[in-house]
Amino acid sequence: MLPQISHISALVKQSAHDAGFELSGIAPVEDFPELSYFPQWIAAGHAAEMKYMESKDRNGKLKRASLKSTFPWARSVIVCAINYNTAHPYSTEERNPQNGWIARYAWGSEDYHNAVMRRLRTVESRLLQEHRIASGESCECGRELQTRCYVDTGPVVERVYAKYAGIGWTGKNTCLLNQKMGSWLFLGVILTSLELAPDLPAADRCGTCTRCIDACPTDALIAPYKLDSNKCISYLTIEKRGDIPEEMRAGIGRQVFGCDICQDVCPWNRKAPASSAQEFQPHAELVNPALEWLAEISEEDFREKFRTSAIRRSKRSGLRRNALIAMGNSGEARFLTKLQRLTNDEDPVVAKAARWAISQLKNDKHPEFRQSTPC
Ligand code: B12
Ligand code: SF4
Ligand code: SF4
Question: Is residue 269 part of a domain?
Answer without folding.
Answer: no
